[in-house]
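Appendix B. Raw example, untouched.
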Amino acid sequence: MDHLSIRTTPATDLERQTLHVRGVSKTYASKGGSIEALRNVTLNVGSGEIVGIVGRSGCGKSTLLRLIAGLDREFAGRISLDGSDITGPGTERGVVFQEPRLFPWLTIEQNVAISVHEVDMPKSAKQERVKANLALVGLTGFEERFPHEISGGMAQRAAVARALTSQPSLLLLDEPFAALDALTKMQMQDELIGIWQHRRISIVLITHDIEEAIHLCDRIIVMSPRPGEIKSVTEVSLPRPRTRTGAAASALRERLMADLGLIN
């Protein structure tokens, strides 16, 4: 039977930690008063670790990812990556959203190349890097196509290639496969694991999908309803490659559903 380990406070090797989130709180101002989105969130992501964050809609998952991405600078607390405080967007962090967000007037190759447009390196080296990442996500031969000429799954592969082309140490994924059909979604999940095994990049995954989190992640963080706080942290030691069924995966699913308040 698959081995499963569950710990609410897993031991962490400080020397391996890449991302540090310390006491982060976020409040939005509105006409009807302030809205507290996050409250005192503290977490770490180790080098080469895949950490999933799950929670109900409105719990602040995507808000937290935007703060880590540097897309929102107004918050209390501290966020650092590889020892440096995050104060804005940076090439050391690749971001993939639920929608591919490709520019329709650019080819797939041009869309992917955007992430290294400002990088100081020879043009030939940029082209080689773009082609390598297109090959990594299975888009060789589609370089000259435009976004409307490819499928939704292929467009999301292009978004992943774009995020990887700057060679980030951290990949941030905000519900990246939610808009895909079930079969394409499972294929993309397996392809993501293949990319992770090739690059050993640290990943933070925001998802509503418990099965997706179990299939992909080393640790799963459950957020409470707004204001978002960390309710539990579960370490998963299911061996890879993982199956999508089995007693251990079912037990973990029930544990997470209980933490989310979906079952008693």
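End of appendix B.
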